[in-house]
Amino acid sequence: MDFDAIVIGAGPAGSAFAGRAAKGGMRVAVIEKKKDLGTPVRCGEGIGGHWFESLGLKIESGVGYAIEGAAVYAPDGRELVVKNDETTGFVVERKIFDKQLAIAAARKGAHFYPKTMATGLVKEAGRIAGVSVQRDGEAFEMRAPLVVSAEGMEAKIAREAGFNCQANLYDVDSCYEYEMAGIAGCHRLIELYFGNKIAPRGYVWVFPKGDDVANVGIGVGGSMGADPKRLLDDFIAKNPRFKKAEPIEVKGGVISVGAPIDSFVKDGFMVVGTAAHQVDPIHGGGIALAIEAGEMAGDAALAAFEKQDYSARTLKKYEDDWRAAEGQKLSKRLKLRKVIEQLNDDDFNHIFKEIGDSDMLKVLDSDFKPVVAKILLKRPSLLKVLMSLV
Amino acid sequence: MVVKIDDSKCIGCAGCVSVCPVMALTLVENKISCDAKCISCGTCVKVCPARALRL
Questions:
Q1: Percent of chain A with pLDDT over 70
Q2: Deepest in the core among A213, A296, A363, A375, taking most CB within 10 A?
Q3: Which residues of A touch B30 (CB under 8 A)?
Q4: pLDDT tens by residue, A49-108
């Protein structure tokens, strides 16, 4: 079986790449080790509204629930509501959303191989020549001059290819989540609850998917030693609005909240999406970043296909484009994460008391200076912690 | 030594796979298995959101 590109993983990054490359005339194979797409769900399923225009995404009714903003809660319960183009958006049904992306890519000519697992790289004279796979009890090779890892956090083939995708405990969040029905007081707001007792170096979230249905989850820092399921169960038990709520599904996962990996391309190989740790370090969101990366990688692959030159030098256009679009923003968000994780509950409460909704908008836009100045005025002791933001 | 996996707790997220320094863990059809490459470092045990692993 010969192709121009083989994509490992049929998530958002893989399907976005495949659609782009196939539309441009490449023979693309997408291999997916599972028999189903989009499951088991490992995330909160939220996508910010600003992405829909830039990526041309369409959400049909029944696939996503529109969100109008975010409500953020300090440990003492004080609420800040933020409404901007980053906090509006959708909570999508990944099981359908991922499948729709795959269908779109298949319609553009990409070939899909479900229940087909990549087991290793195939090399010829030292160059990448494809992947070895297993399907239905058979082991065989699929050949292409370009292999694209869209493997998500597992990233085993990317690691075999020499990419530094191994996650470390400090730079991941460990997440547990229920989809619950019968929740009282759900509005079209994403809710985030901060506090070192609630979720050490993380937060509890309520992402509504309907008037009384929501993903209720928790992420805790991987190096904190906390048990996310137990903390989430505590949070739910203590909050009366969940009294009549039933968990209808269990979800969860481990997500990178560190920096993207240091290089996305090698000769004949690209890494896209969560496999490349292209994830927002503040909220752990990666769906849209993955689609954006998949499309950029698809464009770079097409340029390589035209020249029949899949060297790292040609493929690097993808890495340059993606870093130009997202690199600076994500590195500021990583700085913010590292500041937030040094705050104790008292600091949190103080900060929420001092800042208003408009300040929160500035923080989300990475315009930290005016907000830091305001906080320091009342609590100069935080200077050392907040200094890295200005 | 290989890590012990409690399938009744595992949610098939493969978080353990992502942190394993020696790629001893594999997820196939929502089931984790651990092979002889395991060095019993315990990193996977710490990160598992479902507390499904132990040494």
A1: 100
A2: A296
A3: 34, 40
A4: 888 888 888 888 789 999 999 999 999 999 999 998 778 999 999 999 999 999 999 999
- Which of A21, A101, A105 shows the shortest CA–CA distance to A299? A21
Note the Cα B40 to chain centre separation in Å.
11
* Interface probe, candidates A156, A218, A251, chain B, greatest B C-beta count within 10 A: A156
Residues of A in contact with B52 (CB under 8 A): none
Mutate to test the interface with A, among B6, B9, B13 (most CBs of A within 10 A): B13
**ipTM exceeding the 0.95 mark:** yes
DSSP code, position A380: G
Question: In CATH, which superfamily holds the domain spanning A46-91+169-256?
Answer: D-Amino Acid Oxidase, subunit A, domain 2 (3.30.9.10)
Q: Closest Cα partner for A287 from A26, A105, A101?
A: A101
Fold of domain B4-54 = Alpha-Beta Plaits (3.30.70)
Domain ranges of chain A: 5-40+95-166+259-330, 46-91+169-256, 336-389
A5-40+95-166+259-330: CATH class: alpha beta
- Residues A212, A147 contacting (CB under 8 angstroms): no
Q: How far is the C-alpha of A229 from the C-alpha of A237, rounded, in Å?
A: 12
What pLDDT digit, counting tens, does each position of A129-150 carry? 999 999 999 999 999 999 999 9
Contact (CB, 8 A) for A304 and A26: no
Q: Is A339 left (phi over 0), alpha (psi -120 to 50) or beta?
A: alpha
Residues whose CB falls within 8 Å of the CB of residue A111, separated by 6 or more in sequence, listed in order: A3, A27, A28, A29, A30
Cβ-based neighbours of B10, under 8 Å, separated by 6 or more: B30, B31, B32, B50, B52
Rg of chain B (C-alpha set): 10
Q: Which amino acid is at A212?
A: D
Domain chopping of chain B, boundaries:
4-54
